[in-house]
Specification:
By secondary structure, the chain is of the alpha/beta class. It has a single domain, classed as Rossmann fold. The protein is built from 4 helices and 8 strands. Helix 2 links the parallel strand 2 and strand 3.
Length: 174
């Protein structure tokens, strides 16, 4: 059995993220950094929504392929796409953006990768989907969609620019 959320729910989740960030941002400068892959597309969508509201955050993309601790679970070698961060992180306020927060291990890897670029003043976390089941003490500051899932369920996110369509599929564990 599976459940599917579509473009409308994803758009609502992105709008919710943008509103939460806008409310908390105030006048202080900040940067959005999307985690490849799909976190960068979510971050780009959030940036567009913030731009429409008159905010102009800096924008970057972070590739964490070499920082992951689950190489043995990957079905292929990591595909390196490179990071695109063209501003100093030293002392900056960053909002790290990903598509799904599950165990917290991706975020741990992203924090390790960010440390190679400098020491930000603050790092906050925005996720399109929080599905629970953390293995590490990592919690999001901004959440677009909260999903109740079983630990062994699978959540698959497809986004238009990356996958050709917007949908979230939850496949329940057998």
């Amino acid at each position: 059995m599976s459940k599917i959320l579509g473009k409308e729910e994803i758009d609502e989740g992105v709008a919710k993220l943008a509103e939460q960030i806008r409310e908390r941002a105030g006048d202080a400068p900040f940067a959005l950094i999307g985690i490849r892959s799909r976190g960068d597309e979510v971050a780009e969508r959030v940036k567009r929504a913030l731009n429409a509201a008159g905010l102009e955050p800096k924008f970057g993309v972070l590739d964490i392929s070499l920082y992951r601790d689950d190489f043995e679970h990957l079905h292929e070698n990591p595909k390196l796409q490179g990071s695109e961060i063209d501003f100093p992180l030293e002392g900056a306020r960053l909002i790290l953006v990903d598509d799904v927060l599950f165990t917290g291990r991706t975020i741990r890897a992203a924090l390790d990768a960010l440390s190679d670029y400098g020491r930000p003043a603050k790092v906050e976390l925005a996720v399109l989907i929080d599905r629970g089941h953390r293995e590490l003490p990592i919690q999001p500051d901004f959440v677009g969609i909260e999903l109740e899932t079983a630990r062994r369920d699978h959540v698959y996110v497809s986004l238009d620019a990356t996958d050709g369509e917007d949908k979230i599929e939850i496949k329940e564990a057998q």
